[in-house]
Amino acid sequence: MTLSLSLADQIALELRADIMGGRLLPGVALVEVDLVKRYNASRNTIREALHRLGQEGLTRYVRNKGVMVRRVARDDVRDLFVVRRTLELQAIAQSGTLTGDHDVRMQNAIDATTLAREREDWRAVATHSLVFHQHVVGLMRSPLFDEFFAQVIAQLRLVFCAAPDEQRFQSPWLERDREIYTLLAQGNKPAAQEAMSLYLHDSEQLSLALFDYP
Question: Does residue 214 have a pLDDT over 80?
């Protein structure tokens, strides 16, 4: 049975999608009166949606400024990658042969990343790469993990916004995503796990380096 979403849920999901797509950047104010007009919703509904985003670690309240898209810190990066290792490596460990739907979703994410790179749309490259990793976690076929990881990758998107050179930061990952996909498609789980482990190590180190300088 599928439960229908409340308006507050729908608004929260749309705002999360804007964060994932790089359309809402860290430090941007989410002005209540503007959101009321945008969504034709009550103030209480908007406040509920913003509260949910706060619970997901995507917004924070700043005194005298209101609710703003959150700026993540170095410690947040470490925690996010603890979660990534736990879920993505476990998903590969317990995955079977890729079924048609998972295969298509992963391939579509890689194709979208490839197209974005050809267009030099590095913001979209980051988003589609994260979607690919969302599909990796989807191999566990757990709606609860899927929802949780959607919140995690939205926070990761905020990390990536700290990169001063998006092209340099995002360039290495497409070929490595493609390698992981190929290994999964071949049913070579040990090699896929090793490739993912190295991927996450390198991604974490580059992400942490974004916070080494003022």
Answer: no
Q: Dihedrals φ, ψ of 164, to 5°?
A: -70, -25
Record the pTM.
0.90
SS3 41: coil
Tell me how far apart the alpha carbons of residues 135 and 84 are, in angstroms, rounded to a whole number. 13
- Annotate 48-107 with DSSP letters as a single string: HHHHHHHHTTSEEEETTTEEEEPPP-HHHHHHHHHHHHHHHHHHHHT--SPPHHHHHHHH
Q: What is the pLDDT of residues 140-175, one digit of tens each?
A: 999 999 999 999 999 999 999 989 898 999 999 999
Residue-wise pLDDT for 32-72, tens only, equals 999 999 999 999 999 999 999 999 999 999 988 899 999 99
**Domains detected in the chain:** 7-69 (1.10.10.10), 74-210 (1.20.120.530)
